[in-house]
Design brief:
Number of helices: 13
Number of strands: 13
Shape: globular
Largest sheet: 7 strands, mixed
Helix content: 25-40%
Order of helices and strands: EHHEHEHEHEHEHEEHHHEEHEEHEH
Length: 394
């Protein structure tokens, strides 16, 4: 065991932002508190003033997100419980019996498990696009996998394990060339890297609110054009507050996919977070992330016995870095960093076994270190000095 009594906790450092952003802008708390205390009514379900006010709050967030993702109109932004639900709606709503899909070698189980279910239910098949151990996807080689029954390309914008940025613009061009649907998972990039729906040529761009978008948990969604939505089947049906005289699901956005009471409190918090991000500026946010990631990578490269996965280039990845220390179990390492140094990281397989097979780290996994918007240089220095103590103790 690596635990030593003379290693004292000096700081509390959160480095698991790929799972969720722990710190949020103060404006998020204030917006949610104000809504909960002063409004807290169901939007779109009545004509009294507070219900109408709640509806306006929801629309304000749609408008911010439409601007943020460069959508034509606010109603092309659909709210869901999280990005997993959004991806399920996209995959199960667009794919038909016998379709073939291309995915990257980095996909999260939020993509793989729905495809596995569709494999059984609708005879869907999928192929993994050539992806090297650093996470680099080759669009040219990917084109060779396209078959007559290929209908879709699905791609994460960045690996949730090692941060590698995927060439989604090139994949979008490939999808357009062959007339394929293109579904993009932005769980690791929305909020810290530009995502432009129109420029990507995407069919669906799925997002989650609680990571780099700096909103609360329990809110996510997807962007989809009206034209593409006409081809999508809802995952579930129910009350929408619209055309309530009919017993069939509305066929217009966003009601088509938004049955039941929305997480309005979460939507309000997300709206405040997006407003904060717009004011901070994505270019500045990305520049800070690159600087801190470069500092982290340079420091890790100096530590003997540390194995770094991914591009090891801050310009080609997010602030997520995957490592192992030779002869040290990554779960034990994460435990020691938490209990003895107050540093929070995540070990294991990160719900992405395909990515770990691509990396060559299955089944043992890696230790994931993920920088976020509120991470400081001091915290990166502290992590590196703590890892140095661990290395010295081996």
């Amino acid at each position: 065991m690596l635990i030593r009594s003379n290693w004292g906790d000096e700081m509390q450092v959160y480095l698991d932002n790929a799972a969720t952003s722990q710190k949020k802008p103060e404006a998020v708390f204030l917006a949610m508190e104000n809504f909960f205390k002063q409004i807290n009514c169901n939007p779109g379900r009545a004509g009294y003033e507070l219900s109408l006010t709640a509806g306006r709050k929801v629309m304000e967030t749609r408008e911010r997100l439409a601007r943020f993702f460069n959508m034509k109109e606010p109603n092309e932004v659909v709210f869901t419980q999280n990005i997993t639900v959004a991806l399920n709606i996209a995959l199960k709503g667009l794919l038909r019996q016998g379709d073939h899909v291309l995915i990257t070698g980095l996909e999260h189980n939020a993509v793989v498990r729905p495809l596995k279910a569709l494999e059984k239910d609708r005879n869907i098949s999928y192929s993994i696009m050539p992806t090297d151990p650093q996470g680099q996807v080759d669009p040219v080689e990917a084109a060779k996998l396209i078959q007559p029954d290929t209908r879709m390309i699905v791609a994460t914008h960045a690996s949730n394990v090692m941060g590698t940025l995927v060439p989604i613009e090139e994949l979008g061009q490939l999808a357009a060339e062959y007339g394929l649907d293109f579904v993009v998972d932005t769980a690791q990039t929305a909020g810290c890297y530009p995502v432009d729906y129109k420029r990507l040529g995407a069919t669906v761009v799925a997002f989650t609110g609680h990571k780099h978008l700096l909103g609360p948990m329990g809110i996510g969604g997807f962007c989809v054009s009206r034209e593409a939505a006409k081809r999508m089947k809802p995952l579930y049906e129910g009350g929408t507050g619209s055309i309530s005289d009919r017993e069939v699901q509305p066929d217009f956005l966003p009601d088509q996919f938004e049955s039941g009471t929305l997480n309005t409190l979460g939507i309000v918090g997300l709206g405040a977070a997006v407003d904060y991000l717009e004011q901070a500026g994505l270019e500045e946010i990305r520049a800070k992330e690159e600087k801190l990631t470069g500092k982290l990578l340079a420091g890790l490269q100096e530590l003997p016995g540390v194995i770094i996965y991914g591009p090891q280039d801050a310009t080609r990845q997010t602030g997520t870095v995957a490592i192992n220390i030779q002869d040290v179990d990554n779960a034990e390492l994460s435990f020691v960093l938490d209990k003895k140094f107050g540093i929070m990281t995540r070990p294991g397989l990160h719900c992405a076994p395909i990515a770990h097979r691509t990396m060559g780290t299955f089944p043992e996994g890696v230790l994931r270190i993920s920088i976020g918007h509120f991470t400081t240089e001091e915290e990166v220095d502290y992590l590196l000095s703590s890892l140095q103590k661990v290395v010295d103790a081996i």
